Known about the structure:
Blueprint: H1 5-18, E1 25-29, H2 35-42, E2 46-51, H3 54-63, H4 65-69, E3 73-77, H5 85-88, E4 92-98, H6 106-119, E5 120-131, H7 139-144, H8 152-161, E6 164-172, H9 176-192, H10 200-206, H11 232-240, E7 249-256
Parallel strand pairs: 1-2, 1-4, 2-3, 4-5
Antiparallel strand pairs: 5-7, 6-7
Amino acid sequence: MVKPPGTILQGMYLKERLRRLKPGRFLEVGCGSGWVSEILLGQGWTGAGIDLNAPSLARAEATNRAFVRDGRYRTRHTDFLEADPWLDHARFDLIISCMVVEHMDDACESAYFRRCRQLLAPDGLLITIVPGSEPHWGIEDEIAGHFRRYTQDSLARRLAQESWDVVHLSGLTFPLSNLLLGMSNVLVWYAERGQRSRSMRERTMASGDRSVFLKTTIPEVFGIFLNEWILYPWHLAQKWSCRHPSCLVLYAESRPR
């Protein structure tokens, strides 16, 4: 499966950061198709992915079928913010979410960070990946059921308010995603603009099960140039530009106080 360029760049950055950590047990909240879980599993972690969308969980299991078979990965159809006997008795060395927290209103966002604190093992780490640059609010935020985009300052401030210490914060995918944003918005507008009539929860659930040609569904032939080798210069560019206010993705690592 060929991933969009922004997703590839996020994955490259995540792999670099994970190399600093000793593999343990992880939980991915809102795992979608399971590509983030795949990265963790490939680096020696064991864990689970949860999601509100059952079809997404089926794809996550298919993506990681070898790890499911080996007992290193499982999925669970559940709401992270609600009581769950399995979750309530679990502890994780790493909790990670990618494009999840922006789907929550302010009260649920606070509940999310409290829940993460409850489920993290001592010395555990929280990785939060969210959309950045408030001026770039657009059609994709509307159809996906987002409540907000973040700035680096607002994300750091929000984590501090919830008693988390940020140990690393970086912007990602600039400038490549910004160069492609106009085309991306056109594709989303024509394919998904009808989603805006649905409830925020319905849009959130559907966001993990999207099919937009050349946006989320990319022909295999495009893998010739949509791969880590070809995109490596853009990976260096995103690292050099990590403080740019127009970064469309923000990456934060934090620990509870």
